[in-house]
Amino acid sequence: MSRIGRAPIVVPPKVQLSWTDGNFVTVKGPKGELSYQVPAELSLQLENGSLVISRPSDSKQHKAQHGLYRTLVNNMVVGVTQGYVKRLEIHGVGYRAAKVGESLVIQVGYSHPVEVQPPTGVTLSVDGVDPATKATKLSVNGIDKQVVGQVAASIRSIRKPEPYKGKGIRYEGEAIRRKAGKAGKVGGKKK
Does residue 9 contact residue 45 with C-beta atoms inside 8 Å? Predict the structure, then answer.
């Protein structure tokens, strides 16, 4: 049996979890409401304040779905109680970001500023500048893990970090493999 799939999902008392006959799961909590369609083959049971998802057989497809949909429902429960945050850093001289209304205006070396409009349920914020690295800190907040990750990835794709000077937008704590540059300049002057 799937180790992930057989683990029960703990439902906090402030969360309301319900589903229809077709396994359309709805989770309501303090931060909002999320819903998702779970395949009808999987069965859902609420026991002692925890949700247990079980599969009908040990076929390869049912095994794959078991762990996947258990994780997706768990992510919804965590999202409506705690929420998700992705943090980004902007490195580079003259690279900066500013919050204008709900949108984020980013200047990263293009001839024009790039404006990012967040989808509903996602908030973007500028957390200031780190004095040690002089990097501008951004954060993407929301209750849907997939949407928060997608928005953070699209912001990062505006100017991916380059390997020579490390300039660009990267995730917080992301390690960038650096390259040396032109081979002729590394060893000094040739005679």
Answer: no
Taking the C-alpha atoms of residue 156 and residue 8, their distance in angstroms, rounded to an integer, is 35
Secondary structure (3-state) at 125: strand
The per-residue pLDDT for range 164-180, each reduced to its tens digit, is 999 999 999 999 999 88
pLDDT at 89: 96
- Domains belonging to the chain, first-starting first, are 3-81 (3.90.930.12), 84-171 (3.90.930.12)
Contact 70, 153 (CB under 8 A): no
pLDDT in tens, 107-135: 999 999 999 999 999 999 999 999 998 99
Residue the block writes with tokens 């999987």: 42
